[in-house]
Amino acid sequence: MTIESTTEQQDRAATAPWGSLAISDDVSLPHVGDTQFAALVFERGIAHTAAAHWPTSAASLDAVLPHALTTARSQRVQSALLDVAPLFGERCLALVTLRGGTAYVHLAAAELVALAEIEAWLRGCFPPAEASADRQVPVRFWSSGSYGATAISRTIPVPAWGDIEDNYPSAVRDRLARLADPSFRPAERGQLVLWYGPPGTGKTYALRALAWEWRSWCELHYVVDPEVLFGERADYLLEVVLEDKEEDEEERKWRLLVLEDTGELLAADAKEQTGQGLSRLLNLVDGLVGQGLRVLVLVTTNEALRRLHPAVARPGRCAAKVEFAPFPPEEAAAWLEARGAGTEDVQGATLASLFARVGGYEPEPERPIGFGR
Hints:
14 helices, seven-stranded mixed beta sheet, alpha/beta, single chain, five-stranded antiparallel beta sheet, about 375 residues
């Protein structure tokens, strides 16, 4: 990095609209690029800055290293401070950080129009993650951190619906098929997808198939801490659902916000358990907060429908409502026979228990909890 003399710095400060400023910062070597970027913005009197982030399939900074003034690397993070003036005009800088499958960029330019040009160039250097032909789809995992919402992107392998549909009883299969159909699109209202039923009935596996079938028009976002998302920190919820996007509204993909095993949020006594959590969820799916947002919320729970709050499943609120039930005896026997397993003493069974039987493992029968016999 070029070090300017005191006289040169004073000349820069004289032309900057904010005059002379001093920076006070706690410097951390893994994040030294942030401090260097800020220092150069002030020293060079750069008037315009911007920031953006997006999931990327790029794993290294090689594409931009010829323009690097400094670099920093750690086990999980790598960043580079770039002087891109030769490409975009006088006094143009960029700070690029790759972390958790996401590209974070800070931009600075003397001319406002250059910011969009620099960002477009960087998006070409670090292409956004897309679903691949070998059935890998990008997923953004959200959590709440010390400095707000944090997202980590990674690709996961997923099945096609046609490959797994036989793993569901006919009644469940018919409802899921309507969701997985290529013609399915969310309505203007009813942006809640509710999946309920006992553990082991295949809710998570169906979710992965849905990510593949919806890949052309919908992105998968998984919330690691749903109790926090709808808890006291309203800013966390707004950061997730109002995440900045570069596309026009009409071109923007839908986002599927997944909340797994969230029964307490939907329970009949949800207000006593989670405070305003249920109200915030309902306001997101069809209240004022959700208006105009291309956001679907998929909630899974192991609770029976009768135990859920009546406001959750009322007509018009759900884009889809699917009960994941165990296989009835005759369908369980047919499933086992198709896989060469014995069908003696077949009772109604969950998908997990059927796979266990095919694998030669007989799980212990479930025992009721409590004092009943």
